[in-house]
Every structure is written in C-alpha cells, then in structure tokens.
Amino acid sequence: MTATTEELMDLEEALARFDPVMGLEVHVELGTNTKMFCSCPTEFGAEPNTQVCPTCLGLPGALPVVNEIGVESAIRIGLALNCEIAEWCRFARKNYFYPDMPKNFQTSQYDEPIAYNGYLDVEVDGRTFRIEIERAHMEEDTGKSTHVGGATGRIHGADYSLVDYNRAGIPLIEIVTRPIEVPGHLSAAVARAYVAELRDLIVALGVSEARMERGQMRADVNLSLKPTGAKKLGTRSETKNVNSLRSIERAARFEIQRHAAVLASGGTIVQETRHFHEDKGTTTSGRVKEEAEDYRYFPEPDLVPIAPSREWVEQLRATLPELPGARRKRLAADWEISEFEMQSVVNAGALDLIEATVAAGADAASARKWWLGELARAANEQAVELAELPITPAHVARIVVLVAAGELSDKLARQVIEGVLAGEGDPDAVVAARGLKVVSDDGALLAAIDEAIAANPAVAEKIRGGNHAAAGVIIGAVMKATKGQADAAKVKELTLSRLA
Amino acid sequence: MTTDLTRRTAAELASSIASGEVSAVEVTQAHLDRIAKVDEKVHAFLHVDAEGALGAARAVDAKRAKGERLGPLAGVPLALKDLFTTRGLPTTCGSKILEGWLPPYDATVTRRLREADVVILGKSNMDEFAMGSSTENSAYGPTRNPWDLERIPGGSGGGSAAALASYESPLAIGTDTGGSIRQPGAVTGTVGVKPTYGGVSRYGMVAFSSSLDQGGPCARTVLDAALLHEVIAGHDPLDSTSIDAPVPGVVEAARAGVRDGIKGLRVGVVKQFAGEGYQAGVMQRFEESVALLRELGAEVVEVDCPSFDYALPAYYLIAPSECSSNLARFDAMRYGLRAGDDGNHSAEEVTALTREAGFGPEVKRRIMLGTYALSSGYYDAYYGQAQKVRTLITRDFDAAFGRVDVMVSPTTPTTAFKIGERADDPMAMYLADLCTIPTNLAGNAGMSLPCGLAPEDGLPVGLQILAPAMADDRLYRVGAALEAALLQQWGRPLLDAVPAL
C-alpha cells in the first residue's frame, strides 16, 4: 500500500464550502454466451487461458467478427436508458500497450457510440434526480493480470505477472454520464443510487448478471469540486474500478474530503486516476493523466460499420421488459404504499422477495411486515443479504396464510420462522415438530383463565370495575401457561365475559 | 507438353495428374529438386516443407487411385507467401520478430488450398511484414530476380514471383497492399492479380494495412492465375470485410478471352501514369500493348484521374497508420522473439527491447510515420485528409469506369532495378508502386501481365489492367486475350528467355 496519507477536510465543512460535480463511467460485462469478436465461451471462473482462440489472443493474422447479441444488448441498454440509437456507427481502435491487452489496442467505439443522449431517473430521500447519459458504447474487455510479489499488487515492483486471457474479448458496454450536479450532501448517495438503479435495469434487461463482486459491473467515479456557487468546473480525479455500491459512496465521500482539503490549503488537484482501497475506504494516486498516452483512435478497419435498421430498433424497443422504475411504481400502487415506503423496500433488497411472497398467496402488507421486520433483523444479525436467508417467499407466504387463518399467532409465527431459518424444514414441518398450534379450545382456555384469575384477585377486581386494559395481565399469564399457543384475542374475549 | 514437369503450366500439371500421366508425388518431387538446385541462388523460399508437400501429394495420388474426384488444381505445387499462417509450419512474415513461431491455426487461404489438394511447397520470401518493393527488407536476406541475379524481384512478394520465374513453382500466393503482387509480377515476367478488396479472405493473413491488404494469385499464365483465384476466393465468415457474393467467374472469363476475344471492349489509358520517371522501354512496350488491344478490336480512350497524383502520399499515411496499430501486438508477451528477459527488465522494457531488436528499419520507419499521423492534433491533417483523398480516388475510378470497361497502364515505371540501388532512398523505392497504389485505395481489382522485354535492358515489362470492384473477371478476359496475342507475336512464352540458373 502506498504510504502517503491524505489530508482530509470534515465532510460537513467540505460540503459547506464546495459543490461536488461527479461523472460516472460504468462498465458492464454482457452475459453473452460468446465473446464480442470471436466464438470463445465466456463462463466465469474457468481455468486460466482455456477460453481463448487466435482472435482473442491477438495472434498474427486473426480477425474479429462482431457478436450480434452484443450489439442487440447494447441497443436494448441504450433504449432502456432513453438514448437515441445510432443509425450508423463504427468501432474504433484505442491504441496503448499493456501486457494483458492481446493486440495492444482495444476495440472500442470513439466518436460514434451506438447509443447517446439518454437519461436515468433515480430516487434518493424521496426526491427524483435525472442522471443524463452522454453515451453507451460497445467495447471488449482486456485479459486479467495478477502481479505476484512486490508490495502493491501492481505491475511496478512485482516479481512477475500472470495473465489470464479468458476475460480478453468479453463484451463490455461502457455507460458514461454527463456531469452530475446535485445538492452536495446527497451527491455520494446519488452516485450510489445511480449505479444501483443501473444494475437493476441491466438485470431486468437480462443482458448481464451485473454482479459487482465478480467484476461484471465496475464503476469509475470522476469527481471535482468547485467553490459553492461557482460555475467553472474544477480539476477532476478518476477513481477507477470501484466494485460495490457501498464503495462508490465511500469513494465519492473520500474524494470530496480530499479535494476540499487540497483546495482549501491553496493546493491544486492533479488530474489523475486513483485507486480505491476497500479496506480503509481511501483512494491513492494511480497514474497522472497528463502523462497518459494519446490513444490514437481511428476507425477499426477490420470491422464493417454497424447500421441497425430502424425496424430492428423499434422491435427491440417494443419487446423491452418492464424496467425497474416502472415496476416500482406499479408495485407501490398495488401494495398501496408510498414511494418513500417503496424506497425502504428497495433499500432492504426486499422488492423481489415481497413480490414473490404476494404471488405465493400472501397479502402485501403481511409480506412486507415479515420481510422488513423479523427477517430483516435476522439478516442483519447474520450480516447477510435478505435474499441469502434460508427461507423462501413460499415459506413466508405459508406462514402469512396460517396466521390469517388463526392457526398461528404472530408470536408463534416468529417461532416458525426461527425454525425454518434454523433448517428444521418448511413451516408446516416446523409447526408439526415443535407442536406449535394456537389453543382455541374454550374448555382448555377457561381452565387456564380461571387459574389466572384466582392467582390475581386484585386484577380481576379492576376488570370487573370496567378497566379492560388490566386484562393484559390475565392474558399474559394464560399465554405463559399455554406456552404462547393461546389465541390472545380469544383469551381476552373469554376473560372479559368471565369477569363481566 | 514438355517432359520437364517444372516447365509445365498449372493447368497442364493438373490435367496430367488427373489423367494419371504423372503422379502428384512426381510433380512435387520435380519441383523440390528444382528448388534444391536453384534456390540457393534465387532465395525465393524462407522455408521448404518437403515432407508436408510430399505427404499432400501422396494424398492426392491416393484419392485418384480410389477414383475420388479431384479439384482443378489437385496435386499442383504452390509457393505460399510467408504472410499467411500455416498450422505447425513457420510463419515469419520475413521478420526476426516472428522467428521460430509455429502458428496454431491455418489462414483461410491456407485451408482452402489444402482443401483443394494444392501442394504447398513452402513459404516464400518477402519484405518484412510486406513493407517494401524489392524483398530487400526481408530479415532473412533478399530474393534475387531470376532474369538477373543482381536485380530485385520486386516486392513485397518477390519470393512468390521469383519462385514462378525460376520454375521452382508453377503457382504462388501473394498479397497486395500497394502493389506487392503486381509489381513483382511485372519485374519477373509473371502474372499477378490483386482481387477486389474483400474477394479473398484476410483471415490468417498477417495484417500490414487492413483496409488495403488483399491476397491474390500469382502464376505464369493468366489461366493458371484464374484457376488459383477460384480456389482461394469467396466469402469467409471469419473476415468481416469479406464480400458475401458469388466469386466472379474468372476461369470462364480467361477462356472466353482467348475464345471470343475483346472486340468492342472499351479500354481507358490512364493519363496520369506516364511522363517523367517512366523508363522509355517500359513506355514503348506499354504503348505497343495498347496498340495490340486496338488491333484486337478494343476501343481505346484516354481517361483522366487527377486524384491519382495524391495516391502515393495518401497511401503513405493510411498504410503506416494502420500498420502502427496492427504491429503493436508484437510485444514479446505471447509469441515470437523475446529480448532482454533476463530478470532485470520490466515487461514494458522487454517489449521495447524486443521491438528494437525484432523489427527492421523500414518497419520501424512506418510504425513511426503511422504513430505520428494518428496522434492527437495531427489526425485530421494526416489520416483524416488521406481518407478524403481516398474518397476522391474512388470517385475518379467510378467516373472512369462509367466510360470504359477496363483501364490500363504500365504496372511499374521501370524494370527491375539493381539490389541495393534504392535501399537507402525510401522515396525512390516508394515510386515503384506509383501505378498500383490507387487500386488498393479504391478497393477495386488489378492484374499485371508480362508485355515484353524493355529493349534497353532486356528485362520484363508489366502491363497493368484495372477493373471495377467485383468485376475481376474482366481482368482475366482482357489479360487472356492479350496474352494469347502476345504469345503469337513472340512465338514462345516470355519466360522461356529467362537465363538458365
């Protein structure tokens, strides 16, 4: 790790003195079966250098052929981002030397992207922000280098490097925003929300799993500050390959604090790329952009221009799936909740789970109650995502049905959930095994009530005197006596009639 | 038919093999013997694959013995330019940087040749990465012109052309980026065709300048070139720039040229390709050929293509630009030469040291030219302008082909120059491709065929025929008609005059 420590300004102060301007460049690896320019498979995790051919290894003489599904995916992403789709565009070569880039140029797009001029709306704190999309273009991924030895894990100082070309040539879509200017205290959250929304959209389109931990989606966070109210943009830093939603937010905050400290002390920000360190939440300097290479872009002569017919584009537009924003609106209406409440559902990662639970027969309010309550707590305790809990929407729906039928109380339902999470089987199995059943047999309940009344004469007197709230003590005693299996409402009803 | 198998045409050899008069092994062995005898002097080959060639020949003989149908060139030997990948056979592109590399795959042209049972004798010499007009830029030493061993055989495909002229092979494959098939054809008295861009797959043909490179046939006769053209041409899904359309019927066109003649054909003489720098004997033979075309019934007019004057400078921006990018992959990481890997140099340094050691001066010159031309701030002035010139040249062709069926010119302004004569003068060297370059920029088709010996030096002169894109058949029709008429005048093939080696 580079030893330089950065001076930071307190975030509140930084935001009081400066306005952040952000730009996000997100790379999405498409989930096509084959690579962008050859027919090698793209499976994740294969033995290094087993998914390669003359083309993606850049062997002399080999030529690229465009993957049509890659183009189709790019157009669908463009359409989902409200972009215009180019009637004619070309690939371009981006020339620079790097050992993991087989041809020492990346086949990309330059001034003729396939999609441009779009936007994506994101919601933060109940407010909607429109993030303008400058372009979405197609390109190929590079190989993956592992630098062995040395202190930094980077090529400089490494003893040797290993290169895996399985990733070389995997199709990428790069989505670039226009400068994002939102109230400073929301900027990091907006950056995160944008990437989250983009990820959901990519997943909804089915073009990629967009799993950030696998590098299937990676974000570069460009950030600059300008004095509050100023017009002129400051110099930006580019924090590369930020790999989780949380890291995006942290990287943005760190850079705001770092820039502010530099600017406030009269320093200047160097235009450079920076690396984000997950462990400390800091960034360190990569290479200085001024020294960066001239990429000598020119149209790729080995490929013919792409001219998607308007019929094709319209056909793709007509067959787009429901997108996350529209889906959230529809479900919020169906479930009769506000957009703000929907936000909590989304933030908890419960949207799909609740929808599936409702589909399995639960009512929306109950489904939401269990997933955001008991289950969210359990997930939090175990530090896992909600979806990773060993309970299915069908299980939760069954529990909701049992409660609605009066066969389980809420308290018993929690025990059923505990059992399912503990791996004791599905809800019915847990109910059976643990003998959990609401006791609603009047005889059995009356015996327990009489016992409780006898044990609490003073309370019984109060109830007789019209203080119905005092019945709680009797109910509690009955619940205890029945190990919580009594139907509380029934107990209350019987108690009151006993003491009327 | 001559009893010396190496003197026969490809068409004759194919029919002799098919009829059983000779075996493919005998034909192959005769050529291997010839190579063993004369190639020390000519140096047409970088690598001779005697074992592979004899194996392929035996397979042809076995097929015939079983009564299987043979293709039109089955068993006929061929010299393959070392720019095409050959599985398990060295492919150096005439460069030290690829010394020892054994490609794991066959180029599409290689595959089609194998599938057609053509016998690949070996890999022919060339200017490094096809950059040059004399084959002096080969890292493995120059090829010599069989007409005069002190002279260049043209380039970059000098090895292919010299293999034909020295009777080491009846067929060869070349590549033409700015004239590398046609100019060697002209200076060795052989036939060379640059097909329409996209007519022959570039897959596995190591790229020099992707938008200009085109593989094509080389032979001693127009018909042989046509037979080979049909074997290697046609759509290839592995090459995005390959044309998905039927191959023009070039064999039939070559036969029709002899049978039906060219009466009524409109021929344009390019005004720009004459004057200063053109050798008198070259112009004399060229003008006689034009007169002969007229006698054969062609209508000859002059065509004006003013943009052709800018073709050479445009070419020397576009080709180096593309080559600077195409040759970036030679970085010592995955294949080929690796210099400086002694534990004391970084990967970046090893790449630099390897490129320093592995590329010759002409390749370095062009990489630097191209890197400069593509640089930010210069792109518009150089690469951008050159692309505009390219459009203008295409328009000149379009306008001319609105008036004429084919155009003609000398293939190259002079006959073969002496080895070393232009080696230190790149501009003089570049002028050898003056007449051939416009066709590469426009992507249409061209042929060079021998039209006589220059009186002053007794060396071959080439006539260039140009046809519109996808009208390659016209080249063969005109070429075959003219070839037949010339043969009648001469009484024997021009190549019969090649001195014994």
UniProtKB/TrEMBL annotation, chain A:
InterPro entries per record: Asn/Gln-tRNA_amidoTrfase_suB/E, Asn/Gln-tRNA_Trfase_suB/E_cat, Asn/Gln_amidotransferase, Asn/Gln_tRNA_amidoTrase-B-like, GatB, GatB_Yqey_C_2, Gln-tRNA_amidoTrfase_suB_CS, Gln_synth/guanido_kin_cat_dom
Asn/Gln amidotransferase domain span: 352-499
Keywords: ATP-binding, Ligase, Nucleotide-binding, Protein biosynthesis
Transmembrane segments: none
Uppermost EC category: ligase
PROSITE patterns on file: GATB
Domain of life of the organism encoding this protein: Bacteria
A molecular function GO annotation: glutaminyl-tRNA synthase (glutamine-hydrolyzing) activity
Known catalytic reactions: L-aspartyl-tRNA(Asn) + L-glutamine + ATP + H2O = L-asparaginyl-tRNA(Asn) + L-glutamate + ADP + phosphate + 2 H(+); L-glutamyl-tRNA(Gln) + L-glutamine + ATP + H2O = L-glutaminyl-tRNA(Gln) + L-glutamate + ADP + phosphate + H(+)
UniProt xrefs under HAMAP family: GatB
Family the UniProt entry places it in: Belongs to the GatB/GatE family. GatB subfamily.
Reported function: Allows the formation of correctly charged Asn-tRNA(Asn) or Gln-tRNA(Gln) through the transamidation of misacylated Asp-tRNA(Asn) or Glu-tRNA(Gln) in organisms which lack either or both of asparaginyl-tRNA or glutaminyl-tRNA synthetases. The reaction takes place in the presence of glutamine and ATP through an activated phospho-Asp-tRNA(Asn) or phospho-Glu-tRNA(Gln).
Quaternary state and interactors: Heterotrimer of A, B and C subunits.
NCBIfam families found in the cross-reference section: gatB, PRK05477.1-2, PRK05477.1-3, PRK05477.1-4
Name of the featured protein: Aspartyl/glutamyl-tRNA(Asn/Gln) amidotransferase subunit B
Organism, as annotated: Actinospica durhamensis
UniProtKB/TrEMBL annotation, chain B:
Molecular function terms, GO-annotated: ATP binding; glutaminyl-tRNA synthase (glutamine-hydrolyzing) activity
SUPFAM superfamilies: Amidase signature (AS) enzymes (SSF75304)
Record keyword Transport present: no
Recorded superkingdom: Bacteria
Reaction catalysis annotation: L-glutamyl-tRNA(Gln) + L-glutamine + ATP + H2O = L-glutaminyl-tRNA(Gln) + L-glutamate + ADP + phosphate + H(+)
Family statement: Belongs to the amidase family. GatA subfamily.
InterPro entries with a match to the protein in the record: Amidase (IPR000120), Amidase_CS (IPR020556), Amidase_dom (IPR023631), AS_sf (IPR036928), GatA (IPR004412)
UniProt lineage: Bacteria, Bacillati, Actinomycetota, Actinomycetes, Catenulisporales
Amidase domain location: 26-475
Name by which UniProt lists this protein: Glutamyl-tRNA(Gln) amidotransferase subunit A
Gene name tied to this protein: gatA
GO terms under cellular component: glutamyl-tRNA(Gln) amidotransferase complex
Function: Allows the formation of correctly charged Gln-tRNA(Gln) through the transamidation of misacylated Glu-tRNA(Gln) in organisms which lack glutaminyl-tRNA synthetase. The reaction takes place in the presence of glutamine and ATP through an activated gamma-phospho-Glu-tRNA(Gln).
Gene3D superfamilies membership: Amidase signature (AS) domain (3.90.1300.10)
EC class: ligase
GO biological process: translation
Self-association state and partner proteins as the record states: Heterotrimer of A, B and C subunits.
PROSITE patterns: AMIDASES (PS00571)
Active-site residues per Swiss-Prot or TrEMBL entry: 81, 156, 180
Keywords: ATP-binding, Ligase, Nucleotide-binding, Protein biosynthesis
EC number of this enzyme: 6.3.5.7
